[in-house]
Amino acid sequence: MPTKLELALEIAAKALQRRAHFEEEIAGKLRQEGFAEDTVRAALARLRERGFLNDAAQAGDFAERSELGAGRIRSELERRGATGEAIEAAMGSLPADRELSAAVQALSHRFRHTTVRNPFKMGRYLYQRGFDEETIETAVRRFMDEDESSHA
Fold this sequence. Notes:
The protein has about 150 residues and is mainly α. The chain has three domains: about 1-55, Arc Repressor Mutant, subunit A (Orthogonal Bundle), CATH 1.10.10; about 55-95; about 100-150, Arc Repressor Mutant, subunit A. The protein is built from nine helices and no strands. The chain has helices at about 5-20, 25-30, 35-50, 55-65, 70-80, 85-90, 100-110, 120-130, 135-150. The longest helix has 18 residues, at about 135-150. The chain starts with a helix and ends with a helix. The relative contact order is 0.11.
């Protein structure tokens, strides 16, 4: 018969097969399954030792591939349970021009197939994704300019 730790590790492994998780996400799943805190801590330690949990790498990965603004990335990482240290490292590793290029890319994904270009809707879309006002204005202008030049 498997031990409580082995059962906890099995549940964690199933979750990690679907996608990478932060430690706090796995801890929450294990607590929800009724495992005692000492079993949760032991499972997290084992997963960390084996390289299955790495909040800093997970936070950096999320920040790099995200089409969200810096504010929304930060709040999403907090919501998912990333440590403050992991969040700061992830945010600090982003290139300076990342915010604008992510905003233009988000607009391209969302509006590339629409024929009517409404700057207000584009701005609202970027605002909801956590971009600041200056980035929004620049990204919308750049996207509209690129769109006009590709249709000229």
